[in-house]
């Protein structure tokens, strides 16, 4: 039947806002734990299913005596049946023990902990740049003139198509080697942060700006904007009180997804700029087949993804009342 | 008569970039305490006229007029629009769901003009908002103000919108299709609300496509078509003795079509017995959509099924067409039950009951040309697929043969519905279930489609099940009518009998809500 | 039908790319791997249009020959993701609520890991090279295809035009063949084209960090990686391969968006 819209009876007032947000977060957290457990299981299977067996992978490049080999196998319990290994692995994770790095012979948690701050700073800087740049671009480009939209659209398509590692190279070449405005390589001062963050943010800025602007332009065509104008409010009030929030609803989930993927992007940019960080760590771990280290970084990324998604849900819950029915 | 509040003379609105002149020299006035109506179909220029009065005619519009005078202020110059909008001139848009910002509370929307024009001190805004909502006939206003638009029914949203437009106590209220999306009984309540405001001294300019609404409340009526007024006068005069042919077409759109109907010893083609259907909500709760409906349909007759949204009428139509399986009850065609048929037989029988939808485009495969659309049912039912067969189908519905090469989305709404009818006729059905087939069309196009359906019935003897929310439309075509409410048939009988002496109180209510019926009394 | 000039350029460029990947000899007679230590870092112009790299290899020849690995990895990954994704998506839509839940959760797991790390995981398990790269990239883009296929299957099953076709007496299989499959294909192909652009960047990123096709294969990302060491000496080895990647991505994405727009416009 045409549009049976749910009508909430006048008496049924919702419980207090903060309580509902807490419940939403709890529900999402439970779902996320399931995702995390899945991610743990999958990485475990991938690692153990690797051809040749873990022991061979582990020892492939080193020439060790059979005694050491046996010692390692015992240490990592590689001769246990798979289910036992899995349970042991889960048990260790639950206690926060990520195991030892094969290559570095140190606890994985320590190794990652040493590199994490640099990467987090880079990601935070990139996010800040993305949000600021996207809002600026979107508001500047939210005009109705077709040619203006075409100019902004083309610029954004170009930004989105640039491979971040190449953009990094070009930025280095121009601003560090030619103009000497920024320190060249391996610098972790705030000034050294700008170029890497820029290289990493260009694509996200373009994508978020497009979504934000499309949402705003679509909202500008909606009848409620006309209604608002007939009340005599200013154009600025139309944009900030009404339209901007409508642009944000699709942009916020996108930003969440981008935050998750930035951990991957950071790997590449850290290599281009020879920066310290989890990125370079994980790349060398892959090259050394240092599976505990790779697994730990993958799980770390999954945790970040899960946390960011809960934040996104809470934000959207605050912005758009229509999503609250589902909770 | 006192000095008019609004005086419009020779108003013209151009859209030079699109090469369109939407309004071509119209003149009218609006006075305090009176309701002036502009009636026209979509594209007539009535909405552009209304929006020009608040300086929002649309992108790239050029507005000119010999006089555009609002209470001594010249609106053709550069009037202080922001001080006028909301404060002196209130505006109510159609589509109450989209016209309130879905991300803001109803109270905040209603209060926006209060804040903007500082009508009351800011600590009284809350109180005033509740008072406005209550005045607009919203029960439990205190709670409603804290809810969001999607939590309110269509009727309540429309009232909130009117409350918002009236918040800063404007002298003129412009209402653009204020009742279009509403059920008949709710529509009537909203119109009464407008009438009350007029009697308190507000000048109201009512824009509508529906003469029925005009008959209900307007004092003076202008009939608009293609950017000009073709006729104007007092409401009763327009309704009772329209002079212009177009007005006559609009007014005449409600009367039964003059046809000679065969007497009643035809065979029964379709019989439904004790139909029931429940739907499961996302929460797992089951709601009965249809609850014990029994109907019969004779060859060549039309059975109207009328009801408001949610009454279960569409579900009944779909069960009759064999597209939805009933939870209980049976549907028989020529004495054989749908559910007892095997797959092959069911396919053969399905062909004998065809369905026409409210939105014909959604029932066409978007990849298909008109030719492919018509060929498909012929091929599926093993009929010869020739150009002659195709043009014969188009001919029956009054479409020229050259549409064959086109795509359905290039057709107008009326043409698309004609194509849907032609396609439904292709398998040579005994019954066509028409689900709101004219609800999305303008009145003059509605009349053409209804006449077409009647003509086809007279020639081919096909039976119709005509599902609609609009008793006026049902009456034009139907021999009998079943009135549905909350999944049940509350009254059934010959159409004239039901109209003359409705037995069930709900039917009486529905009839009372047809403005034209009341104006006759 | 309206076709914009930008679109023509994109289509033409994609055609050239495909030709380069298929018949590189048509575009250059030079050997991409021939080192000439007399002519290292020759600037663009003269005998070497785009200059030479640190081994004196002709950059133009290397870019032409680099089209094949870049495109093959991208196309392979997209094809694999499309087949797997459509199968998973249709299964999710048709096999009932439990299967739908299990599949949705599994896809969420895949999505919860950034694509590059997921590929790293695969490469760590299988070793570097084109094959693992294709598998890893396919896994990362599979959820997108599965979602589209699932949504389309559900939408089309309830679409009035599919229902109308049933009303003409077609059998279930005939309805699927005539209406459901052809209408699903549009959105899926549009997504495949857009994804191809992303895959080209992704595969060149992998080669850039040394996990794609192994040297001395000419590959755009790998060329950029080696140019990084000599950035202060010569700019051209760091510029032209990147231009090639960017143009390829722009062209493919533009085609994909156009396709997407047409599909949307048709079903709206």
TrEMBL record, chain A:
Keywords, ordered alphabetically: Cell membrane, Membrane, Transmembrane, Transmembrane helix, Transport
UniProt keyword Kinase, yes or no: no
Keyword Membrane: yes
Domain spans labelled ABC transmembrane type-1: 116-312
Coiled coil regions, renumbered to chain: none
Membership in a protein family: Belongs to the binding-protein-dependent transport system permease family.
Record-given protein name: ABC transporter permease
Organism the protein comes from: Actinocorallia libanotica
TrEMBL record, chain B:
A Pfam entry, by short name: ABC_tran
Repeat as UniProt keyword: no
SUPFAM superfamilies: P-loop containing nucleoside triphosphate hydrolases
GO MF annotations, alphabetized: ATP binding
Coiled coil: none
Keyword Transport: yes
Keywords assigned by UniProt, alphabetized: ATP-binding, Nucleotide-binding, Transport
Limits of the ABC transporter domain: 6-251, 270-511
Stored Gene3D superfamilies: P-loop containing nucleotide triphosphate hydrolases
InterPro entries: AAA+_ATPase, ABC_transp_ATP-bind, ABC_transporter-like_ATP-bd, ABC_transporter-like_CS, Oligopep_ABC_C, P-loop_NTPase
SMART domains with a match to the protein in the record: AAA
PANTHER family given in the database record: D,D-DIPEPTIDE TRANSPORT ATP-BINDING PROTEIN DDPF-RELATED, TRANSPORT ATP-BINDING PROTEIN
Family: Belongs to the ABC transporter superfamily.
NCBIfam families per the UniProt record, alphabetical: PRK11308.1 (NF008453)
Name of the featured protein: ABC transporter ATP-binding protein
Protein source organism: Actinocorallia libanotica
UniProtKB/TrEMBL annotation, chain C:
Topology of the protein relative to the lipid bilayer: Multi-pass membrane protein
Pfam families named in the record: BPD_transp_1 (PF00528)
Domain ABC transmembrane type-1: 67-256
Principal subcellular localisation of the protein: membrane
Transmembrane segments: 71-95, 107-127, 133-149, 188-213, 233-256
Keyword Transport set for record: yes
Signal peptide: 1-21
Keywords of the record: Cell membrane, Membrane, Signal, Transmembrane, Transmembrane helix, Transport
Compartments, record wording: Cell membrane
Family designation: Belongs to the binding-protein-dependent transport system permease family.
Name the record gives this protein: ABC transporter permease
Organism, as annotated: Actinocorallia libanotica
């Amino acid at each position: 039947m045409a549009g049976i819209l749910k009508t909430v009876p006048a008496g049924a007032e919702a419980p207090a806002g903060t309580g509902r947000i807490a419940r939403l977060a709890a529900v999402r957290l439970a779902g996320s734990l399931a995702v995390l457990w899945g991610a743990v299981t999958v990485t475990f299977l991938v690692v153990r299913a690797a051809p040749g067996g873990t022991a061979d992978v582990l020892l492939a490049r080193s020439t060790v005596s059979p005694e050491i080999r046996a010692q390692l196998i015992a240490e990592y319990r590689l001769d246990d049946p798979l289910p036992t290994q899995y349970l042991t692995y889960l048990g260790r994770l639950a206690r926060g023990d990520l195991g030892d790095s094969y290559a570095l012979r140190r606890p994985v948690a320590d190794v990652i902990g040493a590199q994490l701050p640099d990467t987090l700073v880079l990601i935070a800087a990139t996010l800040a740049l993305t949000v600021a740049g996207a809002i600026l671009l979107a508001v500047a480009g939210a005009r109705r003139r077709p040619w203006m939209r075409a100019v902004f659209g083309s610029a954004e398509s170009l930004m989105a198509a640039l491979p971040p590692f190449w953009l990094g190279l070009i930025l280095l070449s121009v601003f560090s080697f030619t103009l000497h405005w920024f320190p060249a390589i391996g610098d972790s001062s705030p000034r050294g942060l700008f170029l890497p963050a820029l290289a990493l943010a260009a694509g996200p800025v373009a994508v978020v700006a497009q979504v934000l602007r499309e949402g705003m332009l679509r909202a500008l065509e909606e009848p409620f904007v006309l209604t608002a104008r007939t009340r005599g409010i200013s154009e600025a009030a139309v944009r900030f009180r009404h339209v901007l929030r409508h642009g944000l609803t699709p942009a916020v989930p996108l930003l969440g997804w981008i935050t998750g993927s930035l951990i991957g992007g950071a790997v590449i940019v850290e290599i281009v700029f020879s920066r310290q960080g989890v990125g370079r760590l994980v790349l060398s771990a892959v090259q050394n087949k240092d599976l505990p280290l790779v697994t730990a970084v993958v799980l770390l990324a999954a945790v970040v993804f899960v946390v960011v998604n809960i934040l996104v849900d809470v934000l959207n819950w605050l912005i758009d009342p229509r999503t609250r029915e589902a909770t | 008569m006192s000095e008019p509040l609004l005086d419009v003379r020779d108003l013209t609105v151009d859209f030079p970039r699109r090469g369109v002149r939407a309004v071509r020299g119209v003149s009218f006035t609006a006075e305090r305490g009176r309701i002036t109506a502009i009636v026209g179909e979509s594209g007539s220029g009535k909405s552009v006229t209304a929006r020009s009065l608040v300086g929002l005619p649309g992108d790239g519009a050029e507005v000119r007029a010999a006089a555009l005078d609002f209470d001594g202020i010249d609106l053709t110059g550069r009037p202080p629009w922001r001080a006028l909008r909301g404060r002196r001139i209130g505006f109510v848009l159609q589509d109450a769901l989209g016209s309130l910002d879905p991300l803001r509370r109803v109270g905040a929307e209603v209060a926006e003009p209060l804040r903007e024009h500082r009508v009351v001190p800011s600590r009284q805004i809350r109180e005033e908002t509740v008072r406005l909502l209550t005045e607009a006939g919203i029960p439990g206003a205190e709670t409603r103000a804290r809810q969001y638009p999607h939590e309110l029914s269509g009727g309540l949203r429309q009232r909130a919108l009117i409350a918002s437009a009236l918040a800063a106590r404007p002298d003129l209220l412009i209402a653009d299709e204020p009742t279009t999306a509403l059920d008949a009984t709710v529509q009537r309540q909203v119109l009464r609300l407008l009438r009350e405001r007029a009697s308190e001294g507000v000048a109201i300019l009512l824009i509508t496509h529906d003469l029925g609404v005009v008959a209900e409340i307007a004092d003076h009526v202008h009939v608009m078509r293609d950017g000009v007024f073709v006729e104007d006068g007092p409401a009763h005069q327009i309704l009772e003795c329209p002079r212009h042919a177009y007005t006559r077409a609009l007014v005449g759109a409600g009367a039964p079509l003059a046809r000679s109907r065969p007497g009643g010893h035809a065979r029964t083609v379709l019989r439904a017995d004790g139909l029931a259907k429940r739907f499961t909500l996302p929460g797992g709760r089951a709601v009965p959509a249809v609850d014990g409906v029994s109907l019969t349909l004779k060859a060549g007759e039309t059975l109207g099924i009328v009801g408001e949204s949610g009454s279960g009428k569409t579900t009944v139509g779909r069960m009759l067409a064999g597209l939805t399986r009933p939870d209980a009850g049976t549907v028989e065609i020529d004495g054989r039950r749908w559910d007892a048929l095997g797959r092959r037989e069911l396919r053969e029988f399905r062909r004998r009951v065809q369905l026409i939808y409210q939105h014909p485009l959604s029932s066409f495969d978007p990849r298909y040309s008109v030719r492919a659309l018509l060929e498909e049912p012929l091929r599926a039912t093993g009929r010869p697929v020739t150009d002659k067969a195709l043009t014969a189908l188009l001919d029956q519905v009054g479409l020229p043969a050259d549409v064959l090469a086109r795509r359905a989305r290039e057709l107008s709404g009326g043409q698309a519905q004609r194509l849907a009818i032609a396609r439904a006729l292709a398998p040579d059905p005994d019954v066509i279930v028409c689900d709101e087939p004219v609800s999305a069309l303008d009145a003059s196009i509605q009349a053409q489609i209804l006449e077409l359906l009647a003509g086809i019935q007279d020639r081919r003897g096909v039976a119709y099940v005509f599902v609609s929310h609009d008793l006026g439309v049902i009456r034009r075509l139907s021999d009998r009518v079943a009135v549905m409410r909350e999944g049940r048939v509350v009254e059934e009988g010959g159409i004239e009998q039901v109209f003359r002496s409705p037995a069930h109180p709900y039917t009486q209510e529905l009839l009372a809500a047809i403005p034209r019926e009341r104006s006759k009394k | 039908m309206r076709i914009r000039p930008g679109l023509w350029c994109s289509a033409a460029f994609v055609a050239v790319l495909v030709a380069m990947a298929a018949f590189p000899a048509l575009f250059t007679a030079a050997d991409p791997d021939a080192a000439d230590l007399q002519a290292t870092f020759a600037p663009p112009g003269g005998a070497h249009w785009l200059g030479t790299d640190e081994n004196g290899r002709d950059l133009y020849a290397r870019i032409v020959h680099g089209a094949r690995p870049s495109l093959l990895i991208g196309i392979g990954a997209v094809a694999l993701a499309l087949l797997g994704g459509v199968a998973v998506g249709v299964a999710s839509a048709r096999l009932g609520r439990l299967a739908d839940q299990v599949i949705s959760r599994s896809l969420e797991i895949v999505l919860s890991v950034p694509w590059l790390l997921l590929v790293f995981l695969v490469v760590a398990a299988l070793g570097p090279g084109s094959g693992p790269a294709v598998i890893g990239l396919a896994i990362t883009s599979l959820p997108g295809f599965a979602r589209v296929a699932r949504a389309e299957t559900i939408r089309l099953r309830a679409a009035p035009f599919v229902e109308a076709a049933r009303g003409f007496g077609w059998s279930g299989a005939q309805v699927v063949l005539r209406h459901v499959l052809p209408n699903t294909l549009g959105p899926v192909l549009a997504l495949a084209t857009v994804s191809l652009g992303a895959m080209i960047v992704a595969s060149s990123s992998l080669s850039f960090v040394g996990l794609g096709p192994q040297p001395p294969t000419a590959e755009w990302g790998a060329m950029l990686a080696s140019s990084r060491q000599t950035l202060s000496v010569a700019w051209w080895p760091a510029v032209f391969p990147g231009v090639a990647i960017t143009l390829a991505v722009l062209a493919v994405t533009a085609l994909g968006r156009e396709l997407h727009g047409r599909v949307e416009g048709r079903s709206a």
